[in-house]
Structure formats: C-alpha cells, structure tokens
Specification:
Strand content: 15-25%
Shape: globular
Structural class: alpha/beta
CATH architecture of the largest domain: 3-Layer(aba) Sandwich
CATH class of the largest domain: Alpha Beta
Largest sheet: 9 strands, mixed
Number of strands: 11
Radius of gyration: 21 Å
Number of helices: 9
Length: 283
C-alpha cells in the first residue's frame, strides 16, 4: 500500500517547527508530549528518513524536515480552505489587527493577502504603532489582537525573531561623532531601550537627536546623515547602510515577535487569524 501524508501529522510537524520544542508544540495542538512524539515517529516512518534532530535544548529540523515543512504549509492552507468551503464556514466580520510599523511593509502583505484569500468576507482594520501603544489598545479592547515585540528569551510564545541593527546614511560622519547622535523610537519602545542599554554598557556617549514613533521620521533623519537609528533588519531600506561592530558600535540583541490578545478567550475570527499568523508568518 502506498504511504500517505496525514493532515494531523503535518499540522503537528508545523507546530514543532514553529515552537522548536515538543512540549510547546504539544500544547498548541492539544496533545500530550508523548502522543506528539509518536506522531513525529509515524511521520518519519512515512517519510522513510529522520525529520527532526532531538537535542537537550529542543528540536530542530533536518534538511528533509525543512523541505517537508514548506510543502506542509501549502497543503494545510489548501486543505483548510477546501474544508471551510465545503462546510460553508467562510468567516465574516470585522477584525482589528495591530503591529509595529517596522513589520508593515515586509510582513503584512503576505499575511493579509493569504487570509483574505481564505476569508474574503472578513473586513480588516490595521493599526501600526510601537508595541507599548498596541498593548494600550488591547487593554482598552480597541483592538482584537496585535503582533508585538518582546525581549528575546521571553517566556511568551515566540513566532519569529528579528535582529536589531544600527542604520545610517552611507558615508555619514555621524557614526564617528561624540556624543553619537541617535534617532530612536518612543522612549518606552524596545528598540529605544535596548539601544541605550547597549551604548551605556559600552561606555559610549550619545544624545537623542530625534525621538518619534514614526518610522518615516526615523528613516528621514537617517537619510539626512544627521543621526544613526535602530531598526529591525526586515525594515532596513536598500538605500541605507547597516553598521557592523567594525564601525565601533555595540552588538544589538534580537527582538522576538509574539501575539497578544485583548481577551483571554478570543473570538473564532480572531483565533483563526492568529492561527494563520503562526502558520504563514515568513521566517
């Protein structure tokens, strides 16, 4: 008999790939860790080769596992779309989603287009703002869910990590100035806090030349050559330069992306979009 790929096994594999830990993946798919381990063994038997490297720190994908995850994501999307269509379960309603402006250009189109193809009757409202402001919106129930930045190593469910980088106009003398002129986001935003901490730990003098929640404003200051800014790597435009440690600046940590909700039990529509983000957010 020809071996077949089971949809539930593929869904569990994606959960393992996204969380990097069998315990977290098991919680996501509603199984015990031992049951999930048995699922992965069954999938490896079907594949005829290992799909996971099991280590003391968690699990990683083998080359074959990486290839299967790419195919599994597309298969599951098609499966869920077909099932929703057959059951007449295409969702409708208003979904209020928020994310930091850094991710609006690089991540949002992929997410929104994919969800709209599955649920064309859903109306989306999107707000971009720094994470502290997004959490305030959620607390007031002025948004349904948000993709927010948290410190790397946080106990929150990490969907993706983004490195922070120093950015400036190519050839600007601002990089060598003392104190270093900075264009940073809101004072309570993670990029602002981590940049200050890194410079203080290095003993490098700096001054805040421009502080704003506007990504356009930060990019404008960087393009003027008057200041150095900090962005996630995904948000760096091609005309600006990423500054490495060879330019005398301290290394910056990565930030983690996680989902935050306005209530403990989100609505079915909110839960569906959250599941979509977890599955299809580009890594």
């Amino acid at each position: 008999m020809t071996a077949a790929l089971d949809i539930d096994l593929l869904r569990s594999l994606l959960a393992v790939a996204e969380t990097g830990a069998l315990s977290k993946a098991a919680a996501r798919v509603g199984r015990t860790q031992s049951a999930l381990s048995m699922q992965m063994q069954r999938l490896e038997d079907v594949a005829g080769q290992p799909l996971l490297h099991r280590t003391g720190r968690g699990v990683t994908l083998t080359a074959a596992g990486e290839r299967l995850v790419v195919q599994a994501g597309e298969l599951l999307r098609k499966h869920d779309e077909a099932l929703a269509e057959l059951r007449g379960q295409r969702m409708s309603g208003l979904l209020r989603f928020c994310c930091p402006e850094d991710y609006a250009v690089s991540l949002l189109p992929h997410l929104l287009q994919g969800f709209a193809s599955l649920h064309p009757q859903v109306q989306m409202e999107v707000v971009c703002a720094p994470t502290p402001r997004l959490l305030e919106l959620l607390a007031r129930h002025a948004a349904d869910l948000a993709l927010v930045s948290v410190a790397s190593g946080s106990e929150a469910e990490v969907i993706r990590e983004e490195p922070l980088v120093w950015v400036a106009q190519r050839g600007t003398p601002a990089v060598g100035m003392t104190p270093l002129p900075l264009a940073l986001g809101a004072p309570d935003a993670l990029d602002h806090v981590l940049a200050r901490q890194a410079l203080q730990a290095q003993g490098r003098a700096f001054r805040i030349a421009y502080a704003s929640s506007s990504l356009a404003g930060l990019l404008g200051m960087a393009r003027s050559g008057q200041a150095v800014t900090v962005l996630t790597r995904a948000a760096v435009p091609e005309d600006l330069e990423i500054l490495g440690e060879d330019r005398g600046l301290p290394a910056l940590p990565a930030v983690a992306l996680t989902l935050a909700f306005d209530r403990e039990r989100p609505s079915p529509l909110t839960a569906a979009f959250a599941a979509h983000v977890r599955k299809f957010l580009p890594r």
